[in-house]
Design goal:
This protein is of the alpha+beta class. The chain contains 11 helices and 13 strands. 51% of the residues lie in helices and 22% in strands. Strands 3-4-10-7-9-8 form a 6-stranded mixed β-barrel. A two-stranded antiparallel sheet has the order 2-11.
């Protein structure tokens, strides 16, 4: 019982941690990446016309359509510089409220009057020592252009524009250290993109079915475009998590199977120890089916008590971890201070069914052997 209990508790805890990590990643990516993203299957940028925007906006369930220009740029602030990924977004990007809970300093602002502002990652802020509370030093942004053959004019090598740092966001290290958000018009002029865009980001209306909206957008834009949901934008990572979770479940299920082998040998020893008692049952008129049920019930009782104790123990530990953070991540700059856990009913159900199947498997042969041997002996 103890072997099954501890194996079951371990299975509950590990699966809940995987659920917590998956939930954490989904929340992080939902902050940075859109619900639906439209981009070319081949190529970097595409023409965005008022007719295309109007057609997408008219799709039932589409809420906000944000135009995006994304490319690498070189930024300088005072005497520090670095290469970043610049993401130019239209003003309605802030209406999606994806960064509202991720602001660590300054304001979420892209334009105010004639002044352009940048929303930068916290890692970029640290690397450049950017202050968003003073407007004395602008953020200089350079874009390296393709040099024409035979040109020796250095000014032809790059385009340069300036804007003010407005706010600082913090999501995840990879984003914080590489990304800055700028107004679409700023990126459009710096990169000389005209009507070209690298992507369109869509937020669905409240209550809209994401898959239905995705399918309708696919029909609207045609086969040249990829229309990806947030999960599909990171499908490799989510698939890896599911595979790891599956192999972990199988490995721990094998531990439960090993613990259940004790049930097998216990029932075999019980058959020998209770030989006289079973003979008395036969003498009183019992048949092989009754003896078979007795042994199956014994195995089921051991497994039931062990599994129930393990499920309760695992659930209690997960609740304590979620409420009080018993086990920390062990890193100073971790996104969360302790391991996230999410308990799901489906995991508890799957674990219970697995234990039932294993118990039936290891209990069947001893029960059948005992009933058959004593039936033959009686004859």
């Amino acid at each position: 019982m103890l072997g099954i209990a501890f194996s079951t508790a371990a299975l509950v805890i590990v699966l809940s941690v995987f659920n917590g990590l998956e939930g954490l990643l989904r929340s992080l990516y939902a902050s940075f990446d859109p619900e639906i993203k439209i981009e070319l299957k081949r190529g970097k940028s595409f023409e965005v016309t008022p007719a295309l925007l109007s057609a997408i906006q008219s799709v039932k369930g589409v809420g906000i359509v944000t135009e995006v220009i994304e490319d690498y740029a070189y930024v300088r602030y005072r005497d520090a510089d670095m290469v970043v990924t610049m993401k130019g977004v239209s003003n309605n990007f802030l209406e999606q409220h994806r960064l509202d809970d991720r602001l660590s300093d300054g304001r979420l602002i892209l334009q105010e009057g004639e002044t352009d502002y940048a929303i930068i990652g916290q890692g970029v802020q640290y690397a450049l020592s950017v202050s968003v509370n003073e407007g004395f030093f602008p953020l200089q942004v350079f874009y390296i252009k393709s040099m024409k053959t035979g040109s020796l004019d250095p000014s032809q090598l790059y385009a340069r524009q300036v804007l003010q740092p407005g706010g600082v966001f913090t999501i995840e290290k990879n984003y914080d250290e590489n990304y800055i958000f700028v107004p679409l018009s700023f990126a459009q002029e710096l990169l000389n993109y005209g009507n070209k865009r690298t992507a369109l980001e869509i937020q669905t209306a409240n209550g809209a079915n994401l898959k239905d909206v995705q399918q309708k957008i696919k029909e609207t834009v045609g086969d040249s475009f990829s229309v990806l949901t947030n999960e599909e934008q990171h499908k490799d990572l989510y698939r890896l998590l599911k595979v790891e979770k599956l192999f972990t479940f199988v490995a721990l299920a094998l531990l439960i199977l090993i613990a259940s082998i004790n049930i097998f040998f216990s029932l075999m020893m019980l058959a020998l120890d209770k030989k006289k008692d079973i003979s008395i049952l036969f003498a009183l008129g019992a048949d092989s089916a009754l003896v078979h049920k007795v042994f199956l019930s014994e195995g089921a009782l051991i497994a039931f008590v062990g599994a129930t104790s393990g499920l309760l123990l695992g659930g209690a530990i997960c609740w304590l971890q979620d409420s009080f953070g018993l086990v920390g991540m062990g890193m100073e700059n971790a996104i969360v201070s302790s391991y996230p856990v999410i308990m799901r009913f489906t995991d508890f159900l799957t674990i219970s069914l697995t234990i039932v199947a294993i118990t039936a498997l290891v209990s069947f042969y001893p029960a059948r052997l005992a009933a058959r041997s004593y039936s033959v002996e009686r004859l």
